[in-house]
Amino acid sequence: MFKSGRQFAALLGLVPRQNSSGGKDRLGRISKMGDRYLRKLLVVGATSVIRGAGSNPTKTGDWVRSLMERKPARVVTVAMANKTARIAWAVLSSREAYRPGQSVTAA
Q: What is the CA radius of gyration of the chain?
């Protein structure tokens, strides 16, 4: 149904809205299109991951901590929700079990 994880995340409204003109890219707030409830579940789950990232010695924990040094917490939360949606798409499209720490290639 979706060609990429980005298309799936865009359907959920977890990607920045583009307002580009004259060759200059301008990314705004998330578009908030699509299923509100599913987006909310992903954001709440991402908030939980971010709160536990301080004591989580994993690649995801490292990634969250490095983002938190540069970005506000709500921006990191939406980035984590976006990443989770893309992982879900990859797992569903490959029809394989989720294996943390390993890359999944889509069929």
A: 15
Tokens of 99: 């294996």
Integer Cα distance of 74 and 68 in angstroms: 10
Q: Is the dihedral of CA 48, 98, 60, 68 positive or negative?
A: negative
The pLDDT value given to residue 81: 92
- Residue 104 pLDDT: 53
Rounded-to-integer distance, Cα 88 and Cα 6, Å: 11
Look up the pTM and report it. 0.77
Contact criterion met (CB below 8 Å) for 85 and 9 = yes
Q: Where in the chain are the domains? A: 5-17+27-94
Q: CB-based contacts of 103: which residues, under 8 Å, 6+ apart?
A: none
Q: Which two tokens stand for residue 33?
A: 């299109």
